[in-house]
Design a protein that fits this description.
Shape: globular
Largest sheet: 7 strands, mixed
Low-confidence stretches: none
Distance between the termini: 39 Å
Mean pLDDT: 97
Order of helices and strands: EEEEEEEEEEE
Number of strands: 11
Strand content: over 45%
Radius of gyration: 14 Å
Length: 119
């Protein structure tokens, strides 16, 4: 079945950087809109950054200018470069792949990777 596997999370001090990766398998990666979401316990999952199959990007206001989303279709991979990290960026980060056809919505999630920003 489809797999999205995130990596790169961890503990970092405020002001530091992390790069998240998401490796996709068993999908035609280039056809999919991809996104990074995050969730804090007790809160809804929120979109952090998205990149369409045509490389159009979008960012949450809270991360604009600090985070950069990118994709490498040849490697079936999605990335999130996170700079100037803040304690409020602490969350579980999830990779999402989505594609809509006239017949159905294809929507897949990874298992998540923890990012903790703390001194």
């Amino acid at each position: 079945q489809v797999q999205l596997v995130e990596s790169g999370g961890g503990l970092v001090q405020p002001g530091g950087s992390l790069r998240l990766s998401c490796a996709a398998s068993r999908i035609t990666f280039s056809w999919y809109d991809m996104g990074w979401y995050r969730q804090v316990p007790g809160n809804q999952r929120e979109l952090v950054a998205g990149i369409t199959s045509k490389d159009s990007t979008t960012y949450a206001d809270s991360v604009k200018g600090r985070f950069t989303i990118s994709r490498d279709n040849a490697k079936n991979s999605l990335y999130l470069q996170m700079n100037s990290l803040k304690p409020e960026d602490t969350a579980v980060y999830y990779c999402n792949a989505a594609r809509r056809t006239p017949q159905r919505l294809f929507d897949y999630w990874g298992q998540g990777t923890q990012v903790t920003v703390s001194s």
